Amino acid sequence: MDSEKQLHGQTNSFIEKFQDYLGEFVYGGIDGSITTFAVVAGAVGAGLDSSVIIILGFANLFADGFAMSIGAYLAAKSEKENYDKHKKIEYWEVDNLPEKEKEEIRDIYKEKGFTGDLLEQVVEVITSDKDRWVAVMMKEELEMIEEKKSPFKIGGITFVSFVVLGFIPLIVYVVDFFSELTIDLMLASSTLTILSFALIGYLKGVVNHTNKFYSIVSTVMMGVSAALVAFYVGDFLERMISS
Q1: How far is CA 143 from the centre of its chain?
Q2: How far apart are alpha carbons 105 and 235 in whole angstroms?
Q3: Which of 102, 104, 169, 242 is deepest in the core (most CB within 10 A)?
C-alpha cells in the first residue's frame, strides 16, 4: 500500500510539473511541426527525392529546434535576472529609505480604498516583515511577478517538443527510405501532421483557456497555410530553374 501511494504521489507530481511547462511544450511543438512540414512541402513541390527531404527536414529540425530552445532559455534567464536585480534594489531601499518605502506602501493601499486605522494596520503588518514588504513592492509598485520555472527546463522542453512533434512530418519518409512504401508519401505525411496540429491546437486551448474547437481549427489552418505556401514556392522555383 505504501509503495502504491508513493507511486501515485510521484505520478501526480510529474503531471503537475508537466502542466507547469505545458505552454513551452505547446509552442515548441507548434513551431517544430509547422516549420518541418513547410520544409517537406517545399521539397515535395520542388520534386526532390525522399533522401533529400530527410536531410533537409532533419537539418531544419535540429538547427531550428536548438536555436528556439536557446532563445527560450535566454529570454527566461534574462527575465529572472531582471527580477532579481529589481528585488535587490527594493531590499536596499527598505534598509536605507524605510520611511519613503513605508509611505509608498501607504499610498498603494490608500488607492485600494483603505483609510484611517485600517490603512495604518495594513501598513504596519506589511512593513513588519522585510520579505513580505519587498514582495508587496515588487508586485504592487513594479508590477513584477517572480518566474518560478527553471530557464534550463524551459529551453529543454522547448527543444524536446520541437524535435518530437516536428519529426511527425518526416516519419513516412524515413520509413520509406528503409523499406519502400506503396502509398502517397505526401498525403500520409500531411494526414499525420494535421492530426498533430489538432492535438497541439487542443493543448494550446488548454494553456490559453480559450475555446478548444477554435484553437484546433486555427492551428490546423495555420500549419496547412504555411505548407501550401512552401509547396507552391518550391514548385515555382523548380519550374523556373529547370526551364
Answers
A1: 22
A2: 64
A3: 169
3-state SS, residue 119:
helix
Contact 223, 166 (CB under 8 A): no
Contacts of 160 (CB under 8 A, 6+ apart): 25, 28
| Neighbouring residues of 126: CB distance < 8 A, sequence distance ≥ 6 | 105, 132, 133, 136
pTM recorded for the entire structure: 0.78
Q: How far apart are CA 54 and CA 171, in angstroms?
A: 9
CB 96 within 8 Å of CB 57: no
From start to end of the chain, where are the E strands? none
Residue 208: alpha-carbon gap to chain centroid: 11
Residue 214 in contact with residue 202, Cβ under 8 Å? Answer: no
What pLDDT was estimated at residue 156? Answer: 93
Cβ atoms of 219 and 30 closer than 8 Å? yes
- Over the stretch 57-79, which tens digit does the pLDDT of each residue have? 999 999 999 999 999 999 999 99
What does the DSSP 8-state code read for residue 183? S
Residue 189 · residue 196 · CB < 8 Å? no
Cell 503537475 locates to 16
How open is the CA angle 17-20-26, to the nearest 5 degrees? Answer: 115
Packing angle between helix 50-96 and helix 22-45, nearest 10 degrees?
150
Contact between 50 and 188 under an 8 Å Cβ cutoff? The reply is no
